[in-house]
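okkk here we go again. third time trying to get the pyridoxal-5'-phosphate bound version out, last two times i messed up the smiles copy paste (missing a bracket lol). double checked this time i swear
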Amino acid sequence: MAEPLTCQNDEVGTFEDYLSTFDSEPGYLNWAAFGPLSPSVREEIFADADLLGSGRPSSLALVAERIGQAQELVAELLGTDAAEIALQPSSTQGLQHALFGLAGSVIASTAEFPSISLTLERAAAASHGALTPRWITPDDSRVTPDAVAEVLDDDVAALVVSHVDFRTGFRVDLAALRELLGPDRLLILDAVQSFGVVEADYAAADVVVGHGYKWLRAGRGTAFARFNARARERITPMLSGITGAATDGLPVDDLPTAAASARAYTVSGPDTLAAGRLAIGARDVRDAGVAAIETRIQEHVDVILEIADRHGIAVSSPLERAQRAGIVVLSPDEPARLAAALANAGLVVTARGASVRVAAHAGTDTDTLQLLDDALTAFGNETFTFA
Ligand SMILES: Cc1ncc(COP(=O)(O)O)c(C=O)c1O
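finally!!
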């Protein structure tokens, strides 16, 4: 078993310590797209790379312990056991393992991030009719219990849904969806926009995928998928590879069945450097406390909503705390002009179509929020001269 990963300096890090690690330049409001790597992740990458560079078996073994550490920490944050966690190169690959092995009707919104919609479509196409998407197009793209209830029948095997929608910022009601689905259907959750920054009963979902390159500040390659016993019973490990076999070590001269644990949903040996980054990112949010992180993000969102309101900019993401997480969606009359004004002011956001997505993290500083306020003031005061 891997050595447990302790806190930095072997002391429980305080929330204030955590906030002080946010060291990117003011103006960064794009956490829903990418999280600049934390100092601890950056340091550990170098340390682990040095160990791998030595070629010593003991050093390689030390870095390999990152796999178990990452599984333990992700499991702790999800309220489950490490054996239910399979490390993945991306959360989309986690969803592929879940959806390619399913049969029956699977409910999903057409407006989901393509990691859900496209994967479901591809899995159905490969299933020779065994898997059928049951698409829904709810109002405002919100996957509410009512929207799901409308299409629920005995053929439905699962619902696949984003915990927090990447485009609208809407947070689903996990408990209500679980109750609606009952014990006989799977709840497959994409927690990319919530893991580590939203306290929730993740154990209510049978499959949970997420990654560390946004809110965990751990870079790409740091994804995971949780498969509980019900999921493992119903999802055939269709994409199971050499690490997924029910054997210790390499299955040579043998064709064993898939492992009983979540390892069945893996293909080959994980990237130990990525596992290390995930472990550090997960440890840092665990030590700081997800509840404290969530509260601070909510406070920042309140400030951003107040700024938008004061400048007369419409907001299309939810206003109620229970329905939102870290994403605010501005829907101004002139989105392209607003996006340009924010970029000119040094603010990093995601501009897409008619909206501008703004996402603050717990460590977002007052200078950044002030920059936003100033940029919106300038945007509102701009006058045009027509030739
Ligand atoms: C909700 C959601 N799901 C999935 C992804 C993609 O995750 P990955 O790159 O780990 O496949 C994203 C990326 O923005 C996302 O926002």
